[in-house]
Amino acid sequence: MFICRACWRRTLSPAAFSTQKALLAAPRTNILRPFDRRHVATATAREPAIRSTLDLASPRRKENDSEQDGSADSMSSALEARKNRMKWKVNKHLEHLGNNYKVAEHVAKTLERGEFEEAAMLVRQASKSQSVTVAWNHLIDYQMQQQRLHAAVKLYNEMKKRNQLPNAQSYTILFRGFANSVHPKLAVSEAVRIYHTMMSSPRMQPNTIHMNAVLGACARAGDIESMFSIVSTADDKLRTPNSRTYTLILNALRPKNSPARVHRGREIPDTEEDAEGAQAAVIGAINQGKAIWEEVIRRWRKAQLVIDEPLVCAMGRLLGSGGRNENEEVLALVEQTMKIPKMAEVDASDFLPSPKGCPPAEQTAQLAAETTEAVAKFQAQTRIKIANRRFAHAGNNTLSMILESLAVTRKTTLGPKYWDFLVNKCHVTPDNATYHQYLRLLRVGRASATAADLIESIPVEHLAPKTFRLGLSTCIKDNLNPNAFLNATRIFKTMNKLKVPDAHSMRLYLQATRANYRQFRDKPDGKFQLGKQIAMALDNMWEPFGQLSRSFSFSRSEAKSPEEEWMATLNDRMEATAVARRMVAAMDFIVTEGAGTPEVIKLLTTRRNILNRQVTRFFEKHKEMEKRLPSKQQSIAQERMREVFSAGEAKDDGLDELGEHEKIVTAKKRWQ
User: Fold this and answer.
1) Backbone φ, ψ for residue 487 (5° rounding)
2) pLDDT at 536 over 60
3) Which GO terms describe its biological process (predicted)?
4) Which of 130, 159, 215, 498 is the most exposed place for a label (fewest CB within 10 A)?
5) Would you give the end-to-end CA distance of the chain in angstroms?
């Protein structure tokens, strides 16, 4: 191997190639002598020789390199031409944009089209001759909306370097972007740093809006220590805490997974020590929130603070994260801040019309005239106090908070009272979440009649499958009520307002039919009465189930293949099949036990055969489609089948693999 550049040059020279045979015949013996070698030859010295060797060995390499150099040159020239055109365009715009207001307006319109580079070039060019702080604010706001925190901070620093002084709106945009960032850990560090920089600046000090925005960023990241360091900068002049300030603090103190909500399965501690630690943390947060609330009430009574619904609900939700005693304080909280009376201390007759024995209108007017003077004196004394302390207005958040607190304390009888007072007296318009929260409370109290009345009164736009599932599950729990089945039927018939019936609600309706049988247990014809009730439920389900089955004939999604369409509707088809199997089991009970008239048994036998064929077709079609699916989708389909057709349901309703005698015995066990 040659390591000397002179040897390489002699070897690769044209004369060497022409006299190759001569060189091979009489090789130079001094090539490998130590005194002719250059042991310190560098890589830069060998690189030209290697390039020349490659160029000699590959003549097309020069052509390829020249093509690549040409494409790179053309690309750079295109970028340069585009930059020149943009610069010419920006200069033309600046000729017609006379003041900074028009510059800011043009930048806003340019950013709406998504042309950030042009807008940034225009702002930089305009910054040479005038102050365009508002235009810089538009650029920073655009980057914040795109979740580019580093780019926004870089623009903020560039703005200051170009002698464009940020105003209060500039910092508001920055802090608001940090608070709404999807990277809270990064955002809170930048927000706290810029905020403390503002605190040390004599030109501009942060105000309440800036402080609240930084508190929002700290609360979103869960950085309580940084949040209280920002709170310590509050004063009575420029950074006076308002209701938004206290709302952010109380919401940040509220634990995300409280022990009172463990029964919902969100997060269960592994050991008792973990549970005790979580409980202690919740109690500590509640005590800290109570100390803050004392300051809120003190300032509110001095007319230094306006209490609104978000602030009241923030404190109420913090109390609701505790145990039973803390949840009972929620009712006292709304009474203190919203003048909502405690319904346990109010007689129900206070909300009823006056009885017939009340005095006539003339006597009422006379009594009112006599007491006018005394009332006027009292109002004159208390007008100043009442004017200085305004109560918050209740809304959906308040109603939902009260209902959730009543569910935890199991004071379910107070739910309808609070609902009537807030909806009818305070004119609160419930939304979907509030309706569902009220239905959960009624389910805890097993008030099926109230749930049926509520669902019948809900507007159509607020009805959802979840609404009927909550109502029917209430009827299932209310199994001691002899009218629970009638209430379930009322709820089920209301489901006709939906475009497509809910399969899971049908299963719950059948379950409510089976659960409400205690009134037939001690009667001689109890079996016949139970069969009559089941037959009535099956008759009510027949038409909605047919509507549900026909809905699968029309594609609900844009599928590219039959297999894709089958997978898109597989879950709904399995739910409908599970309903059909339960209906078949119920019909088997009536037919085999003779718990019905001959006409009913004949009708149910016909319908049973129809449903059985439908179930068979589903499993045959699914087996055929499953073979065409990829292995990953096959595992997904099998998992869905196990979820819907669980072991318990397969024992109760899955009778396809059993013999005829075993089907009858299983059906009897299912319905007896």
Assistant:
1) -65, -40
2) yes
3) mitochondrion organization; RNA processing
4) 130
5) 96
pLDDT per residue as tens digits for the range 590-629: 998 888 888 999 999 999 999 999 999 988 887 877 776 6
- 140 torsion bin: left (phi>0), alpha (psi -120 to 50), beta (else): alpha
CA 161 to chain centroid = 41
- For residue 205, give Cα distances in angstroms to 219, 227, 556: 22, 18, 57
Q: What is the domain partition of the chain in residue ranges?
A: 5-57, 251-259+280-347+389-429, 517-671
Distance CA 208, CA 238 (A): 7
| Cα–Cα dist 593/48, whole Å | 101
Q: Which two tokens stand for residue 207?
A: 């105000």
Instruction: Give the pair of three-digit tokens for residue 328.
Output: 């009972």
Q: Which residue has the tokens 């059948």?
A: 510
Cα–Cα distance for residue pair 375/379, rounded to 1 Å? 6
Angle made by CA atoms 347, 351, 352, in degrees to the nearest 5: 105
Give pLDDT tens digits for 470-502: 999 999 999 899 999 999 999 999 999 999 999
**Sign of the CA dihedral 533, 537, 540, 546?**
negative
Closest CA to 474 of 421, 438, 503: 438
Asked if 351 and 357 touch (Cβ cutoff 8 Å), the reply is no
State the DSSP string of 423-439. Answer: IIIS-----HHHHHHHH
Residue holding tokens 């597989």?
570
Task: Tell me how far CA of residue 21 lies from CA of 15, 26, 57, in angstroms.
Answer: 11, 9, 20
Residues 6+ apart with CB under 8 A from 442: 412, 415, 448, 450, 451, 454, 474
Contacts of 96 (CB under 8 A, 6+ apart): none
**If you count them, how many residues does the chain have?**
672
Phi-psi region of 377 (alpha: psi -120 to 50; beta: other; left: phi over 0): alpha
* pTM for this model (two decimals): 0.74
pLDDT at 17: 46
Residue entry with tokens 């235009």: 135
* Contact between 159 and 166 (Cβ < 8 Å): yes
Asked if 215 contacts 186 with a C-beta cutoff of 8 angstroms, the reply is: no
Report d(CA 567, CA 547) in Å as an integer.
21
* Residue 600 CA, distance from chain mean position: 49
